[in-house]
Structure formats: C-alpha cells, structure tokens
Amino acid sequence: MAQVQKPRSWDDQLWLTNNELFDQLFEDLSYARFNDPEGTLKRAQDLAQIAQQHDNRLAYAAFCYLEAGCQRGNGNLRESFRLATEAYELLKELNAPMHTVRSMNALALCYNELNNPKVAFEILFEAQGIAEQIPSPKEIALCCINLGFIYSMQDRDEDAILSYQRALKEELDARQRFLVLNNLAGSLNELHRPIEALIYVETGLSEASEAQEPYLYAHFCTNKAMALAELGRLEEANEWTDKSKELFKKTGHPGAVAEPHLDLANVFLCQEKYDMALEQLKEAEKISLSIPARPNIQRISKMKSEALAALGLYEEAYNALKMHHVLSTEVANEELSRSVRAAELLQQASYAKREAELLREVNKELLSAKELAESANRSKSEFLANMSHEIRTPMNGVIGMTALLLDTPLDDRQREYVRTIRTSGDSLLTIINDILDFSKMESGKITVEEHDFNLRELVEDVCELLSARAYEKGIEISCLIPNEINGTFHGDSDRIRQVLVNLAGNAVKFTEKGEVAIRCSLKKTGKRAADILIEVHDTGIGIPKETQGKIFESFTQADGSTRRKFGGTGLGLTISKRLVELMGGHIAVDSAPGKGSTFRFCLPLQIVDDKGLKPVLTQNLRVLAVDDIQTNLTILREQLGSWGCQVVEAESGTDAIKHFKEKGPFDLIIMDMQMPDMDGMDTMRAIRSTSTGKKTPSILLSSMYLPDNADTKSLFTMRISKPIRQSYLYDAIMRVVGTPDEEAKDVQVSTTEKPLDGLKILVAEDNLVNQKVALGLLNRLGAKAEFVANGQDAVAAVQKDEYDLVLMDCHMPEMDGYEATKAIRELDSPVAKTRIIAMTANAMKGDREYCLACGMDDYVAKPINPHELVNAIQRTLATEKAA
C-alpha cells in the first residue's frame, strides 16, 4: 500500500511560494488518498493549518477540498459538505478557476451522497463549462469521470458510457485512466454487453500494474469474471473470481473480498441460474460474516430471497427477507432504497400468496395445504405491516419538501404549481396509507405515539394541503379555529392529521359545488385536559340514513356507483374510526342526500400550554370584510375581532360598495376575488373611484392564480391566497397598515463593508439549503459560521467552543430551538450567557415574545433579510456590552 511521503520542502514551507512544489505535493496527496485515506486526511489538515497561518488562502482552500474528499470516504458527510462548500466559496472569491472546478467536483459528490443527484449534475455541468473555458483537459476529464459515476448510480449506464468515453479523450493520469476503463467495463456489464466490456477490461489489465494498483486491478478481474459468466464461460469466470478475491485481500478493504462473488451471483440471477447464484451468495456470506460487513450481508440477504423464492423455498426466502429488513433498519441514509426494498418484499409476498392459492385449489381436503395458505396470508399481513413505514417515508419526503417550498417566497403561479405537485403526491400517499395501515391494523401492529404539537397549525396544514384539489373543482375550503385552540396540546398529531386528511379529502371528493369547512371547538374537562371536537362539513352528495352505519366498514362506500365515479379504496373511514378509538375518542356522521354531510370526531387531549399566542393590532382598525361565503366571513370576523378590529361584513360586491359609502371611512378593506355578479376586481374599481376609496389600503383574497399586472397592483395593496392562515393574514395586515412607532425603533446597520467582521457564529439549522444560504450571507457580511443540525448538537457545541452568538432555528429534530435555548440557559457555566437569536419562519407578533420568554435575546423571521439580521446581531451584542 502506498504511503504519503513527507516532501523535502515541508519544514521550511517552500511549497507555499513555489507553484511546482505545491502542485507536486498536492498531486502526491491526491494520489495517496485512495490507498491511505487516514494518513492523507491528517496531512491535508496539517497543511491547511500551515497555509492558514501563512495567509495562503489558495493553498488553504485546496487542502480543504482535498480534506473534504477524505472525510466523504470516511462517511463523515456533514464535515465533507462543510469543507467543500467553504473551499468553493473561497476559490470563487480568489478567482482560481482550476481549483474552483476541483472544489465543485468535491461538492457535487457530497450532494450525490445526500441523495440529491439533480443538484450534483447542475454543479458538475457548471464546472465542466468553466474547465472548457480555461481550457483545462485534466479538469474536463475529472468532470466527465464524476458525471459518469453519478449517471451509473442513477442506473443511466448509457449516459455513463458516453461520459467515460469523453473522459478517455482528455488528459488523464495513469490512475484516472484505469478508473475510467474499469467503470466503462462495469457499465457495459450492467447493460449485458459482455464482449464490449471485455475489450476495456483487457486494455486495463494490460496497462495496470498489479503491484501499484491492486484495488483497481482487482475490479478489472471482477468485471472480467462477470463478462465471462455472461458469455457462459463459467470455469474461466471462477478463476478470475478467485484471483479478484486474493487481490482484494491485499488492498486492506476487507468488505470488498466478497464483491466478485456478489457480482457473479447477480449475473446468474439475471440468467435465472438460481442454484449457481446461491453457491456464490453462500461464499460471499461466509466472507462477510467473518468481518462482518453489514452492507454486503444486506445485499446477500436480498439476493438470496429472490433466488430461494424462484426455487419455491418460500420459508427460507421469508427468513432471508426478515434478515434483510432487520439490517435495513440499522443503516442510515437509505430512504430511497427502502422504498425499493419494500416493493421487493411486497412482490415476494405476492408470489407466496399466489402459490398458496394454487395449493388450496389442488389440495382442498388436505390439512397441510390449508395450514400453508393461512401461513402465507399471515406472512403477507406481517410483511405489509412491518414495511408500512418504509414505503411511506419517501412519499412523505416528497410531500414534506413541497410543503417546505410553499413556506418560501413564491409568486401566485409558482404556488399553484407546487400545490398541484403536493396534491398529486397526497393522492398517491392516501392510497398507499389506506392499504398499508389497514394491513397493519389487521396484524395488530399499529400504535399511538404522543408528543407536543400545535393544533391550529395542524388543521391549517390539512386545509392548505387539500386547497388545490378543492379550487380545481370550484369549491371553497376553509377552517374556523377559535383563539383558545392557539395553544400547545399533547397527543398523536400524525394520527390526528391522518384522520382529518381522510375526512376532509372525502368531503372535497364528494362535493361538486359549495364549500368544505373544518371547525374546531374545545371543552375543558380538567385543569390540564380537554375534549377537542373537530367537525368536517361539506355541501356534497350526502349519505342516505340507511347506509350511514355501513360506511365505517372495510372496502365499503355508501353507494357502489360512487366508487366508479369518484374512486377510492373504501378503507379511509374504517381506518379513521379505528384510529380515533385507539386514541380514546369517538367518531360520528350526520348526513342527508343532496344536503351534504358533517363528520365529527372528539378526542381527549392534554393541554401543554393554554396561553396561546394572541397578537393584537393596537391601531383598533375599522375593517370592511367582503366575501359571498358566510363561513369565510365568520372566520374573518373571529380572527379580526380577536385582534381588536371593528369589522363590517358584506356578502357581495354591491353590499360592499354600499357599506363603504354609508359606514366609512375604513382603515382596511379585505376583499374576496371570486363572487357572483360582481367580483373583487370590479368591486374595488368602484370603491377606488370614490374620493375616500383612493387611498384606503386593501388586501385581495384569492383561491385562483391572477397575473401580477398593473391593474391588480393599482387596485390592491397586497394579495394572499386562500385558505386563510391566521399567521399569513396577520402578517399581511401588518405590512399593509404599518407597524406602531414604538415597535419600529431599531439599531442602525453599520455602513462598513463587512459589518460582522471577526464574529464567530454558530448556526443551528437542520435544512441543508438554509445552511447554504446562511453560510453565503454570513461570509459576505464578514462572519465565520459553523453549523449544527439540531438542538442537542447546539447545546454540545457551545460547551465545547466559544461563540459570539448563536442563530437558533426553532423547529429541528430531536430537540427544537426552544428546548435547546432553555438547556443552554440552565448550564452551570459562563456558557449560559451565550447570546442567542431566534431564526424562524414563525412570523406572527406573538412568536417574538414567545422566543424571548424561552430565553432568546432577539428574533429574526425567515426569509432572512440581511439588514434585519445585522440589525438584530448588532443590537444583541450592544446589549451584551452595556450589561
């Protein structure tokens, strides 16, 4: 194994000023990284420190992205991402294109490891463009190699082959050439093109030195064995497999010794030679268990289950699948592969079920056939119940990320598109959830997991989730939540959300015109206990009284024709009833054909915080609220009234114009867009034509996309989308009518180029994109930022190192920002006085007070405004100095 040699110029740092010595040192380290990752990591860290001490920023950045590659190889992805990002930002500032391209390659590989190949491809294409402009053949080749690698990881082997072939035409060192030839052969083998693969394998074997590159040479041997096996030359394939195994032993990579056996087993599975595949898998398993190599054992278990099932050995296949599942739950960062494994488990269960049905038909009178069928059915239920979470996780990831995107600044068209994506994902998730949750209930595996949550946010989330589907049908959807439900409750919010999505989703599905309304009410049953009643009312087709008792049964709808017209599994209400009863509540329905339905469920919940966050508009505004739907007017009246506003209601454009003339003046107009006879635009034109209406601030409420044209801007001060979230409405009113003078006082932002120069800041933020934004912003302002992804890590970080202040996100996994702040304040050391600023998307007035009550020193709302951030930091530090 090659070792990293200390250069002659190390001690006197000649390499810092001599480009040739520096390039040679860097190339030597880069080469050694593959054979001595630990040694290279230590050397890179030492050299980065020396470069930093001598203020050689280019050298420092170069060793940072080299260190990032080592950290990624060690599985330390978070540190690798931080180093690659830091190097990339610094090299862009230094205008060093060659090293910038290399750092972008390191960053792209991090994104690929983070399961975000789209961003990785974007970075690599940009890097390739820079390399072609320099031009630098070596850097072009590097981009092509990494593009090919990510293409192959995405099973796009045709694209991978094109990238590798392009790399061969550029300037490659010996190791890069061996790597490209080997990867080319691997992609061709994946595409079942063994003859072409052998051409590249033979070229690589003839050029590679076994002594210098045993690891790559071993891979050449494996690829040759796979190609020979594909061609049916099994004796030769076994010889090259043995040679590959011996070479892998020499490389110091113990888990790789089993790789040739696994690759050959894969070939035999594709050829349906299941006995031969099992022989290779047993050999690979024996090697892996002696290490042990958990990822290999996972792969072996999955492949064994496929081979055993094909041979009819269902009990052994089931045991292999169970082993695969147990190992899968212990491996991190495999959410995408979990869905694939789940699908495979379902497929195997389906094979077992079909076989059992066949045996029942042939041997109806034999007890053994009956027992086998029952066993197969039990296994199917257990499979589905155990894999329910694995299937839902990636689907919920899709829906959750679109929800995060909706919380970012979007124009109306973008918001409409994102809502459509989320609606489609929700429809698919509903079907999957119904089937899997029903199976989970049948096997008795479903449980309740209680935690603290905000009920208002939960109901508003569900309402917004279904809004796109509702507005596509031309119906209104709204939620009426009284102020006493602003507080925090303790219960299973995921199960409550699931029931509410089922009921409200059905309401939207079966309503052709009118509205769907979600109403909540609270009845205290003790000092810290309450019964929460949630009602879902619709103006849909209704349910006949004689069939209302059946709708909560499995696979049942009130009328068989509704399934043909509206679709659905017929499981939603069954699951909802069982979940409500599992949480100690009850569910009921009132309905009549043609008049709509009201589903209601009542749950006992613990009250964690009943104070709530109740903002007040101190201006005592007079507001004209206009909407043709009485439910929406009720919502506006309740919300505005709780904030100290005087509300005049109008149910049409004509009434609005009349009230404005007779009961004015008003401080604010809140206008619905979609109204019969006269819509919001026409109504507002009439009001603007009056002398008092020209300057009255106005907010447009709309459930449809409107172009952002001059006409709209001239009529309305601001627009917000339906359904109305309390926080969005409050924020819009504050923006339109302004902030009281006593709240507008602020410390002036420094006019220097880098107002935060020299500050060391800890950012607690779990979202990688938000981390990148914060890094770019703080670096531009002169601060040095370090990141943690949850509250527990934030508490540990401030105890380990000294920071000028902490920017604390409020919602994070494991421990949120509120709990982390309290934990820091309770420390028995000077660290307890560390300055903490909330950095949160909670933008209501009461949120600031709540953050301060938890021990934070100040508050900034997302999306972050640089001026406000600097203002808050300077204000906080000024307070610290004064104290």
Beta fraction: 5-15%
Major sheet size, sense and barrel closure: 7 strands, mixed
Give the structural class: alpha/beta
Helicity level, as a percent range? 55-70%
Shape: globular
Radius of gyration from the CA trace? 32 Å
Number of helices: 34
How many strands appear in the DSSP assignment? 17
* Overall average residue pLDDT: 76
Amino-to-carboxy terminus distance: 60 Å
User: Are there runs of 5+ residues with pLDDT below 50, and where?
Assistant: 1-10, 330-353, 560-569, 739-752
Write a concise synopsis of the structure shown.
The chain has 883 residues and is of the alpha/beta class. It is built from 34 helices and 17 strands.
Outline the structure in words.
With 883 residues, the chain is α/β, with parallel strands linked by helices. The chain is built from 34 helices and 17 strands. Strands 1, 2, 3, 4, 5, 6 and 7 form a 7-stranded mixed β-sheet that branches. Strands 9-8-10-11-12 form a 5-stranded parallel β-sheet, with helices on both faces. Strands 14-13-15-16-17 form a 5-stranded parallel β-sheet, sandwiched between helices. Helix 1 (19-32) packs parallel to helix 3 (57-73), helix 13 (259-270) runs parallel beside helix 15 and helix 16 packs antiparallel against helix 17. The relative contact order is 0.04.
